């Protein structure tokens, strides 16, 4: 413990009176860290939409204040009371409560239970791992589910909504790497070429997957889908997927309701497969990360990454909430 700094810098969200909060960069003493088996010297974190909500005190995400956001973190173990994790190991942190109920990765030091930490996957380094992060992990789960439900490259096109977001762009890249015809959906006209460079065969507008006709079924267009939007977009995909197709659902920015009939399920035999990245077992998590470092390994991850220092994260939070960010934002933290 003597080699650890007495002070550390973090982005802290605090209560500021009734139904209000304040957030910003703070310097805290090491003794103010939560209890944990390990103290991690964080090298990189990331900015997810969920982190931006936590940074603004959203009660559905920031489950306990004060809170340090950041659901992704990689770094080096600086102190350990666990027999399973040694000082000096490079690890990633993955847990449902990290950055939501317990202090997360937007901090020079993070104190966590040992079971939340995983070795950096073989085939990846610290920066590649955090660039993938929760977004890449979720995209890989979606692709795995499409494969499990029999959606093959020769089955037909696979549509990816929210394609400029972290999950979306990694889904595009993974599917392209595996030989699928990928149709990317975005509302950002200036990102069409960017998505084609990432592997999209075609790029379509949001309206193309936002049918308001009320028809219970639409013409079968897709063999499968990765949807990070939800709402009417998800119902449109389900009504327009081909016989035996599969739609994976992992987001709800477009709404939480599913207003549709059962016809596509019983007349086309389609599957709606939910994807939860937060509460996966350790066995499942390790298997997904192995694939991301192996058969799913993506080249040139930094082509979809923007780096910002921790001190400037507030501006990036505002930008992602306005829908102005594409790809991944890496938060540089290590001293």
Give a verbal description of the structure:
- The chain has 335 residues and is an alpha/beta fold.
- It has helices at 49-55, 126-148, 166-177, 192-198, 231-239, 263-267, 282-293, 313-321; strands at residues 7-15, 21-29, 38-47, 73-80, 90-93, 109-112, 117-119, 158-160, 182-185, 202-204, 222-227, 241-249, 271-274, 305-309, 328-332.
- Strands 3, 4, 5, 6, 7, 14 and 15 form a seven-stranded mixed beta sheet that branches. Strands 10-9-8-11-12-13 form a six-stranded parallel beta sheet, sandwiched between helices.
- A hairpin with a 5-residue loop joins β1 (7-15) and β2.
- The radius of gyration is 20 Å and the shape is globular.
- The mean pLDDT is 96.
Question: Gist?
Answer:
25% of the residues lie in helices and 26% in strands. By secondary structure, it is an alpha/beta fold. It is globular and about 65 Å long.
Overview features:
335 residues, 15 strands, alpha/beta, 7-stranded mixed β-sheet, 6-stranded parallel β-sheet
Which helices and strands occur, and which strands form pairs?
Blueprint: E1 7-15, E2 21-29, E3 38-47, H1 49-55, E4 73-80, E5 90-93, E6 109-112, E7 117-119, H2 126-148, E8 158-160, H3 166-177, E9 182-185, H4 192-198, E10 202-204, E11 222-227, H5 231-239, E12 241-249, H6 263-267, E13 271-274, H7 282-293, E14 305-309, H8 313-321, E15 328-332
Helix pairs in contact: 1-8, 2-3, 2-7
Beta-strand percentage range: 25-35%
Distance between the termini: 17 Å
Report the sheet with the most strands, covering strand number, pairing sense and barrel closure: 7 strands, mixed
Note the overall shape. Answer: globular
Mean pLDDT: 96
- Residue stretches low in confidence (pLDDT < 50, at least 5 long) are none
- The helix content is 25-40%
Which structural class should the secondary elements be placed in?
alpha/beta
């Amino acid at each position: 413990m003597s080699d650890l700094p007495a002070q550390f810098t973090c982005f802290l969200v605090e209560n500021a009176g009734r139904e209000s909060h304040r957030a910003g960069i703070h310097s805290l003493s090491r003794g103010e860290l939560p209890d944990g088996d390990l103290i991690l010297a964080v090298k990189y974190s990331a900015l997810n939409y969920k982190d931006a909500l936590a940074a603004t005190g959203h009660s559905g995400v920031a489950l306990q204040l004060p809170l340090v956001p950041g659901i992704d973190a990689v770094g080096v173990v600086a102190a350990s009371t666990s027999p399973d994790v040694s000082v000096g190991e490079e690890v990633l942190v993955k847990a449902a409560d990290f950055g939501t109920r317990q202090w997360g990765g937007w901090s020079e030091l993070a104190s966590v239970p040992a079971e939340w930490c995983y070795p950096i996957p073989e085939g990846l380094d610290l920066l590649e791992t955090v660039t993938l992060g929760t977004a890449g992990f979720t995209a890989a789960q979606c692709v795995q589910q499409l494969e499990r439900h029999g959606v093959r490259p020769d089955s037909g096109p696979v549509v990816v909504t929210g394609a400029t977001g972290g999950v979306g762009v990694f889904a595009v890249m993974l599917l392209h790497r595996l030989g699928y015809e990928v149709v990317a959906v975005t509302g950002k006209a200036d990102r069409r070429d960017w998505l084609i460079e990432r592997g999209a065969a075609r790029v379509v507008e949001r309206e193309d997957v936002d049918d308001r006709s009320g028809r219970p079924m639409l013409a079968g267009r897709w063999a499968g889908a990765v949807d990070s939007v939800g709402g009417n977009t998800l119902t449109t995909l389900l009504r327009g997927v081909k016989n035996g197709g599969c739609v994976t659902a992992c987001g709800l920015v477009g709404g939480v309701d599913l207003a549709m009939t059962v016809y596509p399920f019983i007349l086309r035999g389609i599957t709606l497969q939910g994807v939860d990245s937060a509460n996966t077992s350790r066995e499942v998590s390790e298997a997904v990360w192995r694939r991301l470092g192996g058969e799913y390994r993506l080249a040139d991850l930094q082509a979809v990454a923007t780096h910002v220092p921790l001190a400037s994260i507030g501006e990036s939070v505002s930008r992602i909430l306005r829908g102005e960010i594409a790809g991944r934002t890496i938060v540089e933290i290590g001293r």
